[in-house]
Amino acid sequence: MTGEDYSSRLPTEMMASIFDLLAQPDVLRVARVCHRWRAVARSLPTFYAHLALKTEDLDSLPAYRQKLEQYTRRMRDAAGAGFRLSLTLNVQWDEDLISDDSGSYNSRDTHNLDKSMSTLVHQTVIRALPEYLASIIQLHVSLPQICFHNLQKSLVRPAPELQSMTLDNLDDGDFDLAIDLFSGHAPKLTTLRLTNVGLRGKPSVPALSAVCSLHLEYYTDSIIPHIAANFPALQHLTIEDLDSAEENAEDVSLALAPCCALETLVVTLGVVERGLPVALEAFLNAQSIPRIYFRLYYGYDGDVGVAVGSLLARFHSPVHLSLYLLDETEKDAVPEPLLVHEIAGRSGYPTGSHLVIELHSVDNNTRLTILVDHEESPSVVGRVVSSIPNLVTELNLGLADEEDGQHFTSLPQLTILRVYLDTLDNRYGWEIDVFDNHGPAVRCPCLDQVVICTSGRYGLERLQVIRAILREFVLTDSARPRPLLVLQGEPLPELVTSPLLLSCVRGITVGPRHAFSKTAECCSTAHVSLVSG
């Protein structure tokens, strides 16, 4: 006996809300249940067919032809069934297709292969694209440059549903994105990734006017002057593996138009001798960007310290400064491109260790996060501390090396100090000597609060390192009031009532254990005035 299908009584809007909670493959499955469910599923953005074409494992021309023709049929069938399309086309080949038994080939053979393969790709997949542009919501293409001319000729019809696009030129050649891309009509195209695909400055590409998230990879800074004109709605910009263009190297007077809506900038680059590439520095000078991430590593004859100094020179108001070694706990808060260039750190550090420098400008709530390899940290920390000592009002400290601690001499505006003991203990097999025996105490006449952050229960085993921190930052012979000591987490009574600690501070309190984060994200954004004198 079959029971009544009560789901048929649900309003269409309620069913759509339920289906919207499903993963994309499950949306396609429920669409097969009945006509009504299919009608509801079709209204959801996740109702699409994802078709991927990859050719890395093919070893003969007939195999390529078969794979390409099969993909073209799948496109036709999915579109004919009423699906929106998400297409991934990754087609590449190498000389192994034409080498003889000895493995040899010549340049003429290579040229003929490239011509034959580009013709095959065009006659199968690329020539079919215009028919389906109205149904495509995602288009991700990786092709040799010889295929891009035909590809762009096939992308001249409007793409009213396209939301995301990747164009990856697998070669090192130079060509520009066509001005008539999608006949200027791609109103939903908000996410774009370009690799080795050029942009004109004038005229701009109208089809890109709605893009709010842009990822550029393997470019020189000569691309930067063309960004504002082509992407008026840009909010999030990532530039990965940026290099310096020789033609801009000495143009220190370069001025650029701002991207007025830009909220986030992520850049990875090998620094040049003068620090930052000229066009990038001009781009930073053209606007105030709320959230900036930089991953700096040595380029040819470059100086990471100079680049850091150039970035810090933009700060003129009170800042909250965080200095810490990136670990697994903090990696989720860092954009993925910044974690690509991982190298083995100094002896004793795990591979991929990074020093993180974060500055939070209190007046306008802007943030700058810089990652460098830990082996460069002593010189970089020195540059930071010497550049902005009079601006730091809060310091979040999670360094774990004596060399890094030596740079602190005077922080005249510092009011709150947070120290993360889990970074300073024997986690990496070192003794705790970061603050001991390396010179006079840091001058912090305005220090009002020292916060000790750690996990779990702790007692007198932490006494010596806490005393070392206090000796480093608290002037016991100063006429100013001593700071309050806040022990976060679960300190034992024996530590909270220790006479040795009480003699260094005006009091000890126990604070709640906050979410473990060494970044300045949790800092107050209230205005802070600098103390004169």
UniProtKB/TrEMBL annotation:
InterPro entries the UniProt entry points to: F-box-like_dom_sf (IPR036047), F-box_dom (IPR001810), LRR_dom_sf (IPR032675)
Q: Which Pfam families match?
A: F-box-like
Residue ranges occupied by any F-box domain in the UniProt entry: 4-51
Q: What is this protein called?
A: F-box domain-containing protein
